[in-house]
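Folding Task

Wanted — backbone structure
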Amino acid sequence: MAKEKLLLHICCAPCAVFPFRQLRESYRVTGFFYNPNIQPYSEYLFRQKEVTGVARIEKWDLVLGEYEKVRWEEEIRGLEREPERGARCPVCFYMRLRKTFEYAAAHQFHQVATTLSISPHKRIDQINTEGEKLAAEFGIGFLGRDFKKKDGYKKTRELSRSLGIR
């Protein structure tokens, strides 16, 4: 039986290595790098270069989304001073996951997941709430896996170091 196609939203190369390897066991995974929230632009370009390099080394299929900084700023207007894990985060998660679901729908993916959940700085409930809303809207599954469980964050950091990425 053929594996289902899964589109994995990637925030950065270090956070992607462990989830990608885990998901590849059960799915045909394609990475989707879409992060208009990353600033300054030089940092965005650095992360894009890193994820592209890792994709080449690890033989991942990878799609690079647009850098829509102005759109992101419009979406989070009024929430700029919110702390990490605050009210701005669900808005940002929704925007990035919505673009991921749009791509998934246009290219016949069965599932969407995100590397955002590997970060100890992100709330899984906020991520999953936005992912589940979009899954219902698009009719595509959302794999709301908490990749930081069972030392996932530690493992992805170790793998990243071994690949020479930061």
In short: Residues 9 and 100 are 6 Å apart (CA to CA). The chain has a mean pLDDT of 93. Strands lie at 5-10, 28-33, 61-64, 111-114, 141-142. The two ends are 37 Å apart (CA to CA).
